Amino acid sequence: MRVSPRNSPAFGTEAAAVETGGTSLAAVAPAETAPAEVAPERLGASRERLDGPAKVTGTAPYAYEHPVEEPAYLHPVQATIARGRVTSIDTGAAEAVPGVLAVLTHTNAPRLADTEDAELAVLQSDAVAFRGQFVAAVVAETPESARHAADLVRVGYGEQPHEVELGPEGGTPAARTDHGDLEAAMASAAVVLDRTYTTPMQHNNPMEPHTTIAQWTADGLTLHESTQGVYSVRSVVAPVFGLDPEQVQVFAPHVGGGFGSKGLPHAPLVLTALAAQRSGGRPVKFAVTRQQMFALTGHRTPTSQRIRLAADDRGRLSAIGHDALEHTARIKEFSEGSSTASGIMYAAPNRRITQRLVPRDVPVTSWMRAPGHCPGMHVLETAMDEMAQACGVDPVEFRIRNEPELDPLSGKPFSSRNLVACLREGARRFDWQRRDPAAGVRREGDWLVGTGVAASTYPTHVFPGSSARIRYEGGRYAVFIGAADLGTGAWTALAQIAAEALEVPFEVVDPHIGSTEFPTATVAGGSTGITSWGSAIVQAATSFRDQYGTQPPEGAEAEGATQPNPDAERFSMHAFGAQFAEVRVHADTGEIRVPRMLGVFAAGRIVNARTARSQLIGGMTMGLSMALHEHSVLDSRFGHVVNHDFAGYHIAAHADVDSIEAAWIDEHDPHVNPMGTKGIGEIGIVGAAAAVGNAAYHATGVRVRDLPLTPEKFLR
Amino acid sequence: MIPFDYRRATDAEAAVDLVHGHPGATFLGGGTNLVDRMKLGVSEPEMLVDVSRLPYDTVEPLPGGGVRIGSAVPNSDLAAHPLIREQYPVLSQALLAGASGQLRNLATTGGNLLQRTRCVYFQDVTTPCNKREPGSGCSARGGYTRQHAILGASQACVATHPSDMAVALAMLDATVQVQGPDGSRKIPVAELHRLPGDEPERDTVLGQADLITAVDLPELAMATRSTYRKVRDRASYAFALVSVAAALDVADGTVRQARIAFGGLAHKPWRAARAEETLRGAPATEEAFRAAAEAELAEATPLADNAFKVPMSRNTLVSVLRDLA
Ligand SMILES: Cc1cc2nc3c(=O)[nH]c(=O)nc-3n(C[C@H](O)[C@H](O)[C@H](O)COP(=O)(O)OP(=O)(O)OC[C@H]3O[C@@H](n4cnc5c(N)ncnc54)[C@H](O)[C@@H]3O)c2cc1C
Ligand code: SF4
């Protein structure tokens, strides 16, 4: 008899590392009746990535590396004013560079069929709406000659006054929710807090920059694209070029991270496809440089957020106010939604949540890991720490005391809500009960030491519109869906879901993703990938078994699509978590170190313990990076981000990341979707920075209300 | 980036001749700074003369005491060299506090000394910068100045020199061996880099065709207990906000001699002569260290974003001296 992989020693080790989630699932494994050789898959197993070997051997093709015949290379010219018009362009010197095939400007670029989305209306007019916007592009035989020629394009401008700075006031209302009377509650409460916090502009910086290979053929447009959704690209790009969706083929088998910035197509993709209309049918390649990413591929708005809290003398909240101010590009409105999470986190009869948007002459804002919830929960959870302190209540207990029974906004029940369990389990593991609440009193050598806590949450959605196809051949099940794996583990997790739904061993499933040749899939965004695509796969598997039973004929095939969820209207659906951090601040220099972070999450069923853990600690690391480093410095005189490279825009380096542990509690939610999953791509970042900031306060007695927590803020 | 010619020099004289005869030529070491600048369009040499393979790749004791470091020695080899680790730990520590393992494998002694400022406006050809384009203006003034100078700056330029290694060398009284069109000469490291004054485009006193062939370290007993402390925004892989290279000779609770240099504060490694003078003969106490730091920083002129560098450099120096005493 062969041993089921779930019982192998390797699995045991991994399960111990992730504890609750892995362990409990492992415990049920021996009770299964194993068919012939290998047991059918059960979700939760700790599977190595199917794409792992290809990645570590450098053979997994990323968009730019896809082999194509006779490629030409693109290099853009970017505007050096933040607002105004292009008045002249001299391309003579650029055209004279040997190897240059074409120089595109707004005067000669092919016309787009649809220019409604101003971000994508590349080279369609002389208007400049932000510094760094494309004003020309060179296509050449080599990347070097394209770059050289681009430097030789001379552009004249008629400059207009610009404004890029976000002040504490102003803006147009974007959303507002009122319950009860916030002001009256504030006026009559025993304890009140009224503070304004800021978070800086931040940039998604996936390791792989945005890259495109575009080629026009008789059938239409073929794109090798680094994207979070091949179908998102198709549906956005087709109308821009006046094509039927089927005329746009998109391939993205492997993606080197996106964090939201590859969720929707940006201008570089359109520019490359435009240029490929002038390359004589040759494919055109463009890899955005790191510096260019700071103007062209989206960013997180800076925020200014006012929090008001009122509580009685026992630490029970009577009011929550959250007013968020964000910027948006003048040419394309996008609301981060920073105050949204304050609607559901804590009970309070009086509540006001507002959102205001300030249009600025900046590049387009877009999704960045946990849009809204990331900056919004950072300030809410910092304010909760301040309020716990003001009420004289332990911050874990303070949150538990204000746990709502129903969704405070909608009045609906939660499909499942285990914030309290996460707080308790985290507190137990972190040895929280031995914590001395006094701030700024512990010193080890030159270092001041403290600990902090914050809550996490992220909504659970399923995007409608994914479908999957399953085909049986040669004793194996091929699963086709146009999903994307950004390094998340989707290749593997989707195979696990298919194996479980088909009740077959994992080893006989072959996933096929990342192509518009496969059935429609929604974007890998909003932590919906696994829930949406998985639901379609489960549906396809059910349909397959319904049609063919357990002895399918060779070539048997079935499709299925995500189904509307009747429970979606009845329940409020969210994942929750609790994050704990230990922080050390150097007493002389203010340098800050985070030796330990722990996150405990309640995020429904975990599909793959190994890749889930990696998603969660990845999110927490990004939260650590946000807490300590990330800050796009917008120079208001010029209108662009001046620290636009990795020497200037700091992201946590290895030495900044010490022990980071992620665990989860067993959560069974029958309402969210057929698998019971809630999505884990984003919740790890939510609240992580607040836990670090709260710990820094506990270490030093210094409350930093403006991120990031750089050393000078702790200097005495 | 413009097309350029590439030559590999066979000996120092040939290298100097090649560059001397060509106004658009420049030396290439490991390329970790120069090639970045070329990609950004900040430097546009028409010819690179590669000196990284010249036979200056050894670290050797000098006959009369001290050590000679070849200009082509990689930063990683220099940091790991037993002579350096034992006799000049400050230098080893400074090197290891800089850049990353991969960069240090490529970076050379000569190139490290002559790397250029990381001022974000210097590196961005779309903004005015007196150092890059004399007379165009200084964008840092009134802009983002977190990394900029608080000592010795001028109206024309407030940039800092980014090298960690150079700070240790300045503290050690190292000298640079230079081969130029008119023969060879020696320059103390502390006098190699200039203050910006009215000519911020000139980082150093070297001419275009001056080749660094070696750096000599004097014999220095107190250097065996020297140290380098770098304060930065990240735990690694970030340029210094403030750094201190120091060595202290204390007998019976009294400072006989102190050697101190700051990094991150000026257009050059900042040898803290006033602090050293204040400490000579002073008690080795925290108060004396603080007084010395304050004496050195009395004339600091912080900018909008970098006032913190005054208390940060004071505290760092006090903390380093406390540990050394
Ligand atoms: C991401 C990053 C992070 C970094 N972090 C740090 C840091 O924290 N601390 C730090 O100190 N440094 C840091 N550096 C800079 C690094 O130390 C320098 O790039 C390196 O030391 C330069 O050496 P090189 O041999 O590559 O010089 P090159 O790039 O080859 O040359 C630099 C300059 O020196 C000239 N030159 C080279 N050799 C000679 C010679 N023998 N004689 C005359 N002229 C010569 C060249 O013409 C050029 O102008 C960092 C660099 C990068 C890219
Ligand atoms: S500080 Fe110096 S390098 Fe920076 S912009 Fe001003 S002149 Fe240029």
What can you see in these coordinates?
The complex is a heterodimer of chains A (716) and B (325). With 716 residues, chain A is of the alpha+beta class. Chain A folds into three domains: 2-65 and 463-561, Aldehyde oxidase/xanthine dehydrogenase, molybdopterin binding domain (Aldehyde Oxidoreductase, domain 4, 2-Layer Sandwich); 72-161 and 207-257 and 263-296, Aldehyde Oxidoreductase, domain 3, CATH 3.90.1170; 172-201 and 300-461 and 570-714, Aldehyde Oxidoreductase, domain 4 (2-Layer Sandwich), CATH 3.30.365. Chain A has 16 helices and 26 strands. In chain A, the strands form six sheets. In chain A, strands 3-5-1-12-9-10-11 form a seven-stranded mixed beta sheet, with helices on both faces. In chain A, strands 7-15-14-13-8 form a five-stranded mixed beta sheet, with helices on both faces. A five-stranded mixed beta sheet of chain A has the order 16-17-22-23-26, with helices on both faces. In chain A, helix 13 (490-502) runs parallel beside helix 14. Chain A is globular. Chain B has 325 residues and is an alpha+beta fold. Among the domains of chain B are: 5-50, Uridine Diphospho-n-acetylenolpyruvylglucosamine Reductase, domain 2 (2-Layer Sandwich); 224-324, CO dehydrogenase flavoprotein, C-terminal domain (Enolase-like, domain 1, 2-Layer Sandwich), CATH 3.30.390.50. In chain B, helix 5 (89-96) runs antiparallel to helix 8, helix 10 packs antiparallel against helix 11 (286-297) and helix 11 packs antiparallel against helix 12. Chain B is globular, with a radius of gyration of 19 Å. The chains are: A alpha+beta (716), B alpha+beta (325). The complex binds flavin-adenine dinucleotide and iron/sulfur cluster. Flavin-adenine dinucleotide binds at residues 26-34, 36, 51, 71, 75, 98-99, 103, 106-108, 110-112, 114-115, 162-165, 211-212, 239 of chain B.
